Recover the amino acids of this structure.
């Protein structure tokens, strides 16, 4: 690989983020597909999803730069500006998650966490799971079941929107974001330039 080409290969996603991402895909899909007919598999897949979310919250605070929420969770104004730039077909490149992707990550984590909690609450009503014997076990079962199903379906909708956003961003930015989540690297001249800008900004903040 030439020097110019090597400058376009940027390490972004660390191994733990990639393992988390694809494990979450696997266990959520398993939980969703086994809801009616394979209760034990559904329950343990739901536990796995909850554990993964707990890990991601911790890693989002102490992990590498591009894994941290502080790196990719932006305010409404910047997120809206990015979405508008998508319409023009000339959006700004981001090394990690773009603002819309960052908001989607937060939304998925919140909804999946709520889905897992309502699932464990349902178990508690029947006297099982880690919440058994708590006040949560006295919640209305029908209400919990309806809420759990609503949250699960909302998660599916968010996943569909997430995949659509990944495909649109991949086309507009001319980079394979799905492959990047497998390999951990992005390949794009504009991303390399963005890294140089970020490094310069970090240096300026260090001198302040």
């Amino acid at each position: 690989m030439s020097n110019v080409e090597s400058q376009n290969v940027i390490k972004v996603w660390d191994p733990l983020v990639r393992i988390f991402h694809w494990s979450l895909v696997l266990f959520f899909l398993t939980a969703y597909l086994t809801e009616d007919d394979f209760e034990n598999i559904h329950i343990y897949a739901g536990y796995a999803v909850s554990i993964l979310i707990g890990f991601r919250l911790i890693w989002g605070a102490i992990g590498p730069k591009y894994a941290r929420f502080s790196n990719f969770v932006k305010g409404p104004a910047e997120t809206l500006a990015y979405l508008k730039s998508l319409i023009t077909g000339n959006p700004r490149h981001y090394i990690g998650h773009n603002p819309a992707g960052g908001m989607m990550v937060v939304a998925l984590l919140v909804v999946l966490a709520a889905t897992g909690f309502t699932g464990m609450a349902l178990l508690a009503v029947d006297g099982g799971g880690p919440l058994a014997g708590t006040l949560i076990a006295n919640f209305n079962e029908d209400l919990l079941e309806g809420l759990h199903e609503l949250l699960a379906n909302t998660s599916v909708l968010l996943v569909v929107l997430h995949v659509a956003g990944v495909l649109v961003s991949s086309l507009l930015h001319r980079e394979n974001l799905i492959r990047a989540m497998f390999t951990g690297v992005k390949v794009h001249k504009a991303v390399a330039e963005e890294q140089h800008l970020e490094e310069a900004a970090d240096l300026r903040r260090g001198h302040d």
Observations:
- The chain has a mean pLDDT of 86.
- The two ends are 38 Å apart (CA to CA).
- The longest helix spans residues 141-173.
- Strands lie at 9-11, 185-187.
